[in-house]
Amino acid sequence: MTQSVEEFINYLAVERGLANNTLLAYRRDLKKYSAYLAKKNIKDIKMIRREHVTDFMYDQKKKGLSSTSICRGLAAIKMFHRFLVRERFLDQDPTHLVDTPQIWKKIPSVLSSSEVEAMINAAKGKGWQPVRDKAILELFYASGMRVSELLHLKVDDINLELGYVRCMGKGSKERIIPVGRRACEAVGKYCQTARKRLAKDKTVNFLFLSRLGKMISRQSIWKIIKNCAQKAHIKTEIKPHTLRHSFATHLLERGADLRSVQEMLGHSDISTTQIYTHVDKERLKTIHKQFHPRG
What are 215-259's pLDDT values in tens digits? Predict the structure, then answer.
């Protein structure tokens, strides 16, 4: 079982080009699955039956895992077994008739335009740090990139004259995202001042650097977002992807078409982007209830 899992992970990394975080999640889910099968004395992948998969899901539910986590784990297990069949390690796929549990799609929390403005303006002060932090927030909101994409940006990935950024998304898929004047100005100022001071090692090509002159970490970006939200007195729940969610929602609210937003977000499936249309509807319902005389 362990060898089969390793071959599957290697396939995902080499042939599918999945991101490292995704590979870690698959490995973690399949490790739980393998441990459960070992407890049931199933030592050979050919012994696995449909009931073993469903029993594993029930076991995870008993342990208090959310429906979302169980569904993600099942997706990994299904992909694993399809891989085994395709590579002729198995004749049949025991997960073929296993249904995915129905789950509610959570509508992501978003900020209003004024809240985003206040949050970006909160990155002010003397020294290099406010200049860098403002550039990060401006570019994050202007592009709607994932946090991992933002921190891996290189200096050459952004063209300030033409106003676009090139980023590498999930599955090593490259996409070009237009960015506005304010973001270009903020990043330009950062490159001319703060970054020159931070780049102790001239060979480091990452755009956003830490105080040690290395690639900024995910935790640091999350800390910047939280600190600026607190300074701006924002009551809305803030998460790492809040600016990404706000980017998509604000575009759709102002009439952008779904396909264009899908392209900018880097979603392979448009159904993933469609959740932001629900955000817009929920916002309209809130406004109606608040302001209609018989709401």
Answer: 999 999 999 999 999 999 998 888 878 999 999 989 988 888 888
Catalytic option among 132, 134, 244, 245 = 244
Express each pLDDT in 4-53 by its tens digit: 889 999 988 888 888 888 889 899 999 999 999 999 898 888 889 889 98
| Residue 170 appears among annotated catalytic residues | yes
* Active-site residue, selected from the candidate residues 132, 134, 146, 195: 146
Sheet holding 174-178, edge to edge: 158-159, 164-168, 174-178
Domains parsed from the chain with CATH numbers: 2-86 (1.10.150.130), 113-291 (1.10.443.10)
Catalytic residue list contains 244: yes
* pLDDT band for position 193 (cuts 50, 70, 90): very high
Say whether 146 is catalytic: yes
Mean pLDDT check: name the lowest of 19-23, 82-86, 105-109: 105-109
Q: Which of 170, 182, 189, 214 is catalytic?
A: 170
What is the value of pTM for the model shown? 0.65
**3-state secondary structure string, the chain?**
CHHHHHHHHHHHHHCCCCCHHHHHHHHHHHHHHHHHHHHCCCCCHHHCCHHHHHHHHHHHHHCCCCHHHHHHHHHHHHHHHHHHHHCCCCCCCCCCCCCCCCCCCCCCCCCCHHHHHHHHHCCCCCCHHHHHHHHHHHHHHHHCCCHHHHHCCEHHHEECCCCEEEEECHHHCEEEEECCHHHHHHHHHHHHCHHHHHCCCCCCCECCECCCCCECCHHHHHHHHHHHHHHCCCCCCCCCCHHHHHHHHHHHHCCCCHHHHHHHHCCCCHHHHCHHHHHHHHHHHHHHHHHCCCC
- The answer to whether residues 176 and 126 touch, using CB atoms and an 8 Å cutoff, is no
